[in-house]
Specification:
heterodimer; A: mainly alpha; B: mainly alpha; elongated
Chain lengths: ~90, ~130
C-alpha cells in the first residue's frame, strides 16, 4: 500500500501543479474558475487517498462538505463575470 | 490470497487509476486551446477520477458508515459538477476567445446577436429584482 500511496501522491502533485500553472496563466477569469474547480477535486482525491492509506475515516466529512459547496465558487464567478465583461 | 489482500489490491488499482485521470485533467487544462474544452476536461475526467479514488477508498475502509459517506460524496460531486460546468459554459459562450472552428455543433449560432444584445444590456439593468 505504501507504493500505491507514493505513486498516487506523485500523480496528484503533478496534477495540482499543472492546475496551478493554468490558474496563474489564465488568460480569462473563467479559465481560472475551471482550474480552481479541478484543484479542489485534486485536493479531495488527496484527502480520500490519505483516508484509504491510513484506514482512518476522520477526514471523510471534509470530503462531503467539499463536494457540496465546491461548485459555489465557479457558479458565482461565472455569474458575475457575465455582468462585468459584456460582449 | 485472502479476501483482504484482493480487496486491497483492487483498491490500490482504483486509487492509481483515479490519480492518473486527475493528472489527465491537469494536462488537459494546460494543453487544451480554449475555455470550453478546458471546461470539458474539468467536468468529465476529473469527476471520474475522483469517483475512482472514492471507490478505492471505500474498498479499503470497508465499513458501512464510511461507504455511505463516500457514496454521498460521489453523488454530491455528480450533482454539482454539471451545474458549475453549465454556468461557466453559458458565460463563456458569446465571448470572442472561444475557438469556433473547434465546435462540432453550435446550436446557439443563430441566436448569437440576441445573446450579445442581452449581455450588452445587462449592466444597465439595476432594478432590485435583478440584482437581489
Amino acid at each position: 500500500m505504501t507504493v500505491v500511496a507514493v505513486i498516487v501522491t506523485a500523480l496528484l502533485v503533478a496534477a495540482g501543479g499543472l492546475t496551478l500553472v493554468r490558474i496563474i496563466r489564465g488568460p480569462s477569469i473563467l479559465d481560472r474558475a475551471v482550474a480552481t474547480d479541478v484543484l479542489l477535486a485534486v485536493v479531495g482525491a488527496a484527502i480520500a487517498t490519505e483516508a484509504a492509506y491510513s484506514r482512518d475515516a476522520t477526514a471523510l466529512p471534509v470530503l462531503v462538505v467539499l463536494a457540496l459547496v465546491g461548485f459555489v465558487g465557479s457558479v458565482s464567478v461565472a455569474r458575475f463575470a457575465a455582468r462585468r465583461n459584456p460582449k | 490470497m485472502t479476501l483482504d489482500t484482493i480487496l486491497d489490491t483492487v483498491a490500490g488499482v482504483c486509487l492509481v487509476a483515479g490519480a492518473l485521470l486527475c493528472l489527465a485533467a491537469g494536462i488537459a487544462l494546460i494543453r487544451f486551446p480554449d475555455v470550453l474544452s478546458r471546461m470539458h476536461a474539468a467536468a468529465k475526467p476529473q469527476v471520474l477520477g475522483l469517483l475512482l479514488v472514492l471507490l478505492g477508498c471505500a474498498l479499503r475502509l470497508r465499513t458501512g458508515v464510511d461507504i455511505t459517506t463516500l457514496v454521498l460524496v460521489g453523488l454530491f460531486q455528480l450533482a454539482t459538477a454539471p451545474v458549475a460546468a453549465h454556468m461557466v459554459g453559458r458565460t463563456a459562450y458569446p465571448h470572442d476567445d472561444i475557438r469556433r472552428d473547434l465546435l462540432i455543433t453550435d446550436e446557439l449560432a443563430g441566436d448569437i446577436d440576441r445573446i450579445r444584445a442581452d449581455r450588452a444590456g445587462e449592466p444597465q439593468d439595476t432594478s432590485p429584482a435583478r440584482t437581489s
